[in-house]
User: Fold this.
Amino acid sequence: MNTKACGNHKKTCTFFEQKTYGRLPSDKEKELALIAKALGHPVRVKILTFLLFRKECFCGEICRELPLAQSTVSQHLHVLKEAGLIKGEVEEPRVCYCANIERLEQMRILLKEMLEIHILHAQPDCTVAEERT
Assistant:
């Protein structure tokens, strides 16, 4: 974990907390954005959840679980694989897919680091300004 001493408290801050306003996103921020984008469609969340329940399965099995065309499922699998959330191994003539647990653990750590900003800095919860009358 990339940490740095913080002037606001005695603890160290993760890469999300370091004053990076006005700078381009860090590699970790880009990684989290890539993962978030891949999970940005409910069908992909459903596919990943399905794969987490199974050790491995073929595209045809996933297609039987979803009311979508095989080509559509394949596109969603491609996005998940590009983000590293799933693995695919060719077993001619099919591809066997499974969840990439190591990548999911990396995602968990990235999210945890980001959420620590709130915990470490004790920021009040965000509230929408009430309408003024």
Remarks:
- The CA atoms of residues 111 and 119 lie 13 Å apart.
- Residues 1-5 have pLDDT under 50 and may be disordered.
